[in-house]
Please model this.
Amino acid sequence: MKGIKVLFGLFLLCFMGLTAIGQKKYQFYESKMKSEPQRYLDSLKQIEADWNRDSILWYRALLYDQLTDRNNALINYRLSLDRALHQNDTIRVLRSFIKLAWLRFGMGDYNRAHDYYRRAYRYIEHGDDCSRQLTFLHSMAIMQSYLKNETAFARQLKKVVNKAEECGDLSVLSKTYKSLGVHYTQRNKADSALLYFEKSEKILQKLGDSLVLAHAYALMGDVYYNVRKDKKEALNYYLKSDELYTLKKEASRAFLDIKLGTYYIENGQPALAKKYAESAYRFYQQTGIMDGLSRSTSLLASIAYHMKDPEGMRRYYEEHEKVRDSVFKLEAANTYATNQLRFEMEAKDLELAREKLHLQSERRKSAELQLKDERKRFWLILLFGLLVVGGLGIFFYSRSRRNRSELRFQRSLAQERKLGIQSVINAQEQERERIGRDLHDGVCQSLSALRLEQLHLIGEEESEPEAWSKSIKRLEGIYEEVRRLSHLYTPELLEKVSLEEAIEENLINTFGKQGIRYEFESNLEPGLIIPPLVRTNLYRIIQELIQNVIKHAQADFVKMQLYKRGDRLLFVMEDNGKGFDPAEQSGGIGWKNIRTRTDLLQGSVELESQAGKGCFVCVQFSC
Model:
């Protein structure tokens, strides 16, 4: 056990070491990426075996992006996006959408940029990340503004407002209110613009964001100055903005300085206008923002004109022309580069579309071939199935015919057997009837005449009266025995009395004279009609059972029951005799006669016995 723990510890240390080495290697390449992108791009080819393809695509796209190779950057970002969508990697999907949108935005393709933001938002629309959803909604609104679609821009901003209120994001809500204020300012709707600016102002005061509030005040001043033409109120908001910027010592207040310089020059205060215009000029010179530098030099040239300074006016005007030319050249160069890149991307997209169309065609052909193969396979399987079903049908049909033939043969055999048994039983009954009749008509009549004769003689013979008396008693005994046998063998008794009465008389003539105690119960309803064949065979079975008890059981008590359960007629007999082994003793002639009679009537006989524990018999017939 100790050795296993040591081995596990060594394995864990090795694994941690390899992980640390891999992490250091990853951090090394990540640090080199920004400082030496081309060298890092070349080194990616050497580590492709160590990293997975997803990481290679992503970092290769980042490097092309840093090298301003937008064409290759777009290709790798799209490949990375496709793999991320296929693997359902939400984080990488969103990062790819953002990168693609920014690249398209930088190329001036605002429609594509908006489409990427829209697809990204749909991917997370039903999630729980409100902050990320707000980011994409706001970006979509900005794209609508660049597309000059003011109605869609306002509608998108209102969606941002609703989402920000739902998420409770006050920062985004204030910025959106401010954007809506700018939108309505541009459309000369002062009341709506001021309403949204005031909403933004309240939130910014609550958040304590002075710089953003200063920008909002400046924009509110524009509303009063440009839309409502209220110069006094406009100056009030401009000064509020100036106060906040001065308090924060914010250098990026140049846009406000331009507004104040414009206000003061238009209201006859060139000295104050010059102060603010020079502040803006210095900021734009340091930052190199050409658009701001153009506006500040134009404002300074106008101030020099009002201050009667031709030299300053000439100098600022010449600088303004140079800046404007530079801006024009830069815009032209950017436009040319953007158009060139767009043309290259469209050509690349066309090539990719052709390849995709060719691939779709190949896939369609492959699908058609596969469909043909599947159809062939289907028909072969169907044909094979029909053959199997046909073969099974023929087999089962022939088997069914054979079974029906065997069943008919068995039924005819059983019928013949039944008829044979019935004939035997009928012959036995006829023979018994004949014997009983002969006994009754012949022997009984002769004995009766002899009895009468001796009765007549006993009155005349007085010499030996005892001998004559004994002779008469013997004759009477013989007469009773013959009469009993005649009743037993003659079925006419069953026609004159009920089955219960016939059984009771049989018990009196057998158990009663043998001194065997018995008990007989019956629940048959009075007037119950029992078929003659069932009545006769059941009576004969009871006779066999009684004879078996008298001859073999050595019992001194027998209990019998006759009752009807549903459509079944049951006879139960139980004795307390010596019992026997049913496997050895149930093959006698008596038991064979009992089973033959039950089989004839499709009944059943149940026998239970054990040495020293008596015997139990139950006979059932349908009735």
Q: What stands out?
A: Confidence is low (pLDDT under 50) at residues 4-30, 43-51. The CA atoms of residues 282 and 288 lie 10 Å apart.
